[in-house]
Structure formats: structure tokens, C-alpha cells
Amino acid sequence: MNAVTSSLEAPRLAGRPGFADVVAEQLDAVYRYLVYLTGDRAAAEDLTAETFEKAFRSWRRFDPRRGSPRTWLCRIARSVAVDWFRAETRRRRREETYSRDQQVTHELGDGLPAELEAALRELSPAEREVVALRVLLELDGPSAARVLGISQTACSTRLSRALRRLEERMTDAGE
Amino acid sequence: MPANEMTVETLLRAHAPVAPDLLRERVLALEPVRRSSARRFTLVAVGAAAVAAVGVALVHGFVSSGKQPVAQPTTPVTARGAVSSPLVPAPKNFDQAASAKAQVVTGSSGRLQHTDASLELQVGNDKDLANATTRATRVATSLGGYAQSVHYASHGTSILDLRIPAENVQAAIARLSALGTLVSQKISITDLQHRLTTQSDEIAQLRRRIAALQTALKDPSLPDAQRVLLQIKLAESRRALSQRLHARQGTVKAGTMAHVALQIGTKKSIVAPPHRGRIGRMLHSAVGFLALEGIVVLFALIVASPVALVAFLIWLWRRRSVDRLLAA
Questions:
Q1: In this complex, is the C-beta atom of B11 within 8 Å of any C-beta atom belonging to chain A?
Q2: Burial, B84: exposed, middle or buried (Cβ in 10 Å; 0-12, 13-18, 19+)?
Q3: Tens of pLDDT, residues B202-261
Q4: pLDDT, tens digit (0-9, with 9 covering 90-100), for A123-174
Q5: Minimal CA–CA distance to B177: which of B114, B109, B117?
Q6: Which residue of chain A is at minimal alpha-carbon distance from B7?
């Protein structure tokens, strides 16, 4: 039995999933979200691990009545990713020239068509983020808005704009 | 939703990235990192501070409750100057005071002392109040003193300010306290002998100086300038002598006439102070101490509020910066 299972399955409360179950169910979702948000698979792996580590530490404070485990994990993941973006921005400022030369491009999706991949790359992290939450993770409007810390209207607008841009790019590529 | 959007969404879902097995294993192997989170530390610190504050207050209350309370209104006797006579201990509580016979303080014989007494009596009703007030005035008169002021209210209390010759103050207090039930008494004796001696010495010295100046002024060979100077000094000395004589007269008067403040009230008007047991005193003291701690905490919060405001603004700025960061 691994550490996560042994530590947090025993005191399972009624109506509250065990942490190991949550890991099994939500790992892909969190990873996808972070891949889309950061655009960097290696970073997304590290950040996913960090997200679950944080979630593990604060698992006792998780209240299923206030939201689903996926929403809760996405909020933690976002906080972790924001810290990463800040660190990346500082790093790029310091090593601007080097960074420009050494940029590595990862695939955002597994076997995603090239034109869609390129279109996704052209979106801002904020737009990719909303696409990930609403399309890949299939969060409903209120949950996604809560993760993003914005209103539902703003969330819907951002999603529509992102999808429209993807469509336009796909259409241009098709012609 | 348009069909082309569906296509994009379907594509995105179909080609969604999958977490590598290594990552899955890494996450499942997580060990809890024992880090003291700031929130936990804050909770513990605040809890510990609250417990410490209450504990200190209780200890303070416990220690304070060990002391005998300063009976209200039976304030202990205060004395200034050299008092050689024993002073009357204040009754410890209302009941004791009520049953106590007035214990009269007498100053040291042969020394000039000023006695300042304050008595509080209780009588049964308004009729008794009127009688006691009249009799108190008569007592003062019969002992060679007088009532300097009398404030009488038919429904409440009467307050008398009596002047009694020092030699009769003992008898006066005894007779006055028999007019009703003694609730409290406060007697203060101030020794005036030292002051009187000092004033007498200064007067004698001034008289000698005046005599010397007068003798010097009789000298016909004294230069005019010197004469004027001596005349000025003589005038100053005479004025000083006059002041000293007046002050000594006041000292003697204070020593010869005692001041007795008498307050007589009916049962309705005099409310006995609540008698508290040790636990009651402890809690009372602890609550007082807690209130003091609360004031200190409030003061600290006021001092810290600008820092909190700056912290809030920084938090707000960071929150805004997230949007800019992800929109780039």
C-alpha cells in the first residue's frame, strides 16, 4: 500500500472520497489543465505533482459541500501554476536571449492535428485555461468561474472568444 | 452550439493529453511533508495567546483575591505626617461596619495634630434621618464646635460638615456614631507639630533680622544707597513675618479644630457594597484584567492597521497581476 492510500483512506468520512480515489480519478484532469495552461508538458508534470502534494497536505480541510474535488484541485493547480508563471517571467527577464534561443515546444495534445495545435499555441494562457476547464475537464460554468476567480459571464465570454479564434484558425488552415 | 465548434471540442477531447505513468506513480508515492503552514501557526499562536491572556488574568485575579478588599465605602484610614497613635482599622464589610462601635482615635498628647474624620451612618427612615441630623448639630454645638454646613434631603441623605475642638473630637465621634448604625468611618490624623515648630523658628529668625535691620537703620552715618537697600530688606522681612504669622495661626487653628464630615442616610439610600467571596473577587479581578488586556490588544491592532492595509493592497495588486500574467 502506498503512502497516499495508507495515510488518507482510513479516516474516510461518509460522502467524502478517499484521497487515493481522488488521485486516480483526477490526475489526468489536473495534468491536462496544467498542460494547457503552461503549454509545457515537463512543467505540467512537476506542477501536477506539486498540486497533489499541496492537496495531500490540505486534504483534511477539503469540504465536498463547497465544491467537487476537481474544482478544488484546479484551484490549487492554478495557484501553483501562477507561481510558476511568475518564476518563469523572472527567469526569462534574466536570461532573455538564452531563453529565446533555447525555447522547447511540447505538444499540447496527444496526436492533436498540427493546425489545431498551432491555433492553441496562439491563444493566451488565460484562453487555453478556460478551454481546458470547460472543454477537456467539462467543468460547468459556475465551477470554472470559481477556479478562475471571475464572473460566469466573463468566463463564458472568454470561452467563446477562445473557441472562435480556434475555429477561425482551423478554417483558415482548411482553406 | 455550432457544428464547427463541436468539431474543435471533439478534437480537443479526443486528443487530450494523458498523464504519464511515471507521474501517476510519483503522485501516489507522495509522503506528507510536515510543514508548519502559516495558517496553522497563526491559529496555534492566537489560541495560545488567548489561553495565556485568560490564564494571566485568572492568576492575577487569584492573587488579588487573596488580599482583603478595600471596603467600599469604608476606606482605610489615611495618615500624613508623624502619627504616633494607632489608627482605626476600617470595618471589613458592611455587616461588620454596621455592628462596630466607633473606635475613636486620639492623637499624641502634647503634639499639635489635625484630625479629619468622616463617618457614614444609617438610620431607619426619613423621620430618624431628620432627628439624627438635628442631634448631630447639637452634639457639635454642645462640645464647643459648630456645623459649618448642613445639607439635608428628606428622601435620601443628609451631609454635615462639622468643626469640633480637637480635645473633644473623641467624644464627638463617639456621640455622633451613636446616632445611627455605623456604616463606615475614615479618620485621618496629620501631625502639625513639625510644621508649627518650623514656622515658629522662621518667625523668630525674621524677628531677629527685623531687629537687626532696625538697629542698622538708626546709624546716622549710613550712606543713602545702603539705607535704601536696608529699608527694602526690612519691608520684605516684615511682609514675610506677616505671612508666617498668618500661616502659623492657620496651623494652630487646624490643630485646635477637628473636621468631621458626617453622612447620614436611610436604608434605602445606603446600598451595601456587594459582598463577594474569594471566587467572586477572583473573577471580578480577572475580568478587569482581561479588559485591560483587551485595551492593549486594541491599541496594538490600531498600531498594526497601516501594515495590514499595505499587506491587503499588495495582495490585491498580486491578484490583479495574475490576470495580466495569464493574458500575455
A1: yes
A2: exposed
A3: 999 999 999 999 999 888 888 888 899 999 999 999 999 999 999 999 888 888 888 899
A4: 999 999 999 999 989 999 999 999 998 899 999 999 999 999 988 888 877 6
A5: B117
A6: A167
Q: Which residues of chain B make contact with A50, given a CB cutoff of 8 A?
A: none
Instruction: Could you list the beta-strand ranges (E) of B202-282.
Output: 257-266
Nearest to A129 among B28, B319, B326 (CB): B326
- The strand ranges marked E within chain B are 113-123, 146-152, 157-165, 181-191, 257-266
Residues of chain B contacting A31 with CB distance shorter than 8 Å: 17-19, 23
Shortest CB distance from B20 goes to which of A7, A45, A111?
A: A45
Decide if pLDDT at B137 tops 50.
Answer: yes
Long-range contacts of B21-27 (CB under 8 A, 24+ apart): B23/A27, B23/A31, B23/A45, B23/A48, B23/A49, B24/A23, B24/A27, B26/A49, B27/A4, B27/A23, B27/A27, B27/A48, B27/A49, B27/A52
B33–A82 CB contact, under 8 Å:
no
CA torsion, points B145, B151, B153, B156, in degrees to nearest 10? -80
Q: Kindly report the nearest CA distance between residue B2 and chain A, in angstroms.
A: 10
Whether A2 sits inside 8 A of B28 (CB atoms) is yes
Residue B11's CB: how many other CB atoms inside 10 A? Answer: 18
Residue in the structure block whose three cell numbers are 499595505: B310
A3, A122, A128, A165, B248 from B5: Cα distances, Å = 43, 17, 15, 10, 111
- Bridging pattern class, strands B257-266 and B113-123: parallel
Q: How far is A143 from chain B (nearest CA, A)?
A: 18
* ipTM score of complex: 0.78
CB contacts, 8 Å: B322 with chain A: 82, 149
Give the C-alpha separation, B206 to B202, whole Å: 6
Cα–Cα distance, B293 to A57 (Å, whole number): 36
Confidence at B70, pLDDT banded by 50, 70, 90: very low
Measure CB to CB from residue B13 to each of A2, A89, A135 and give the nearest one: A135
Question: In the block, which residue shows the cell 490549487?
Answer: A76
Give the tens place of pLDDT for each residue, A79-125: 999 999 888 888 877 776 555 555 556 677 777 888 888 888 889 99
Average pLDDT, chain B: 79
CA distance B306 to chain A (A): 27
Q: What residues of A are in contact with residue B326 (Cβ under 8 Å)?
A: 37, 82, 85, 124-126, 129
At position B24, the amino acid (one-letter code) is R
CA-CA distance, B74 to B93, in Å (whole number)? 8
